[in-house]
Amino acid sequence: MHIGLFTDSYLPRRSGVVRAVEVTARSLRDRGHRVSIIAPRYPGYTDADPGVYRFPSISPPGHPDFPLAVPFSTAHLHAIRELRLDLVHTHSPFLLGGVGLWAARALHRPVVFTYHTLYTEYAHYAPVLGEVTRPLIVAFTTAYCNRCDRVFASVPFLAALLRRYGVRVPVDVVPSAGVEPSDFDGVSSGQVRKRSGIPEESALLIFVGRLGKEKGIPLLLDALAALPSSVWLLIVGDGPERASLGAYAERLGVASRVVFAGAQDHDRVVEALAASDLFVFPSRTETLGLALLEAMAAGRAVVAVEGGATIDLVRDGENGRLVPPDPGTFAEAVRDLLGNAERRHAMAARARVVAGMYAQEQVTDRLIAAYEEAIAQRGALASRNG
Fold it and tell me: In terms of Cα–Cα distance, which of 305, 308, 309, 313 is closest to 355?
């Protein structure tokens, strides 16, 4: 098959969507399929991958790191048609997602869409208009889904939500990306604690993710303030809330035991997970939660806030704790697990089993099967109409 992956976000930017597109392309190519990636151009960045096709872009005011594709270039649209794709897989319902729909219709090919983001939970990035736009966002994304042949949701929670929105086309539970369990076998914690100034004898909590409002990180700082001074928090990732989170930690009096490690490459993230005692996750907006899955694959019990994809990944009392978004309750769950190593390790072992269900090899099997079903469905429809 020749698959086209259409995305409004790609390298050199780093995000869950970018990671999913990268992993999908690599896994499909490993299976012998051809993959073309259609993405916006990033000024000054040159692709090493010859299979990436870049559209001209402009940067919106205040967001120079997130250029938006200008999808009206005749030459680029002609080049997309000439790719002769067998299937279009879109990763955004917006600019290049629209180009993907156009390409699929022009080539009479099926189009599938991965619903990566709870878009309504990002309305705060549109000041003043944010809350007003939520119903419009639901209506727009639902309409987009219904123009596709199939929609992919990473977890059952999201599939059910999309059906409540009014998505009528088939919704398949196909994770947007998986984990490589072998990446976490026999990993040393290296010099993580020494490098970060964290005492070896302290209990270490870790969060990995983007530092955005939608992630709920202030709750972690509130919970840390309710925990003993021997408990530290390592935050791996970067984002627009970095400065305000640091200031909030200062006001709470916990800044001396919070380490903002910034964005790290995958090997460093794996080391950091190995150095930690417990993974903490306050986000209620995840559609998969790849960082959560990787923590589980690393053999870490989890304390997570109930909501979004966590309800499908964390089984309360089995592989971690699932709690309401209350700092006191969160802190109590952390305290209980830190004080009971035997229970924590048993949960960690079960967490690895759950993560194994999302191994990339199995995710790729499910993805290819869904592709083949979409192609067969489109072929049967063409036969009936022709």
Answer: 313
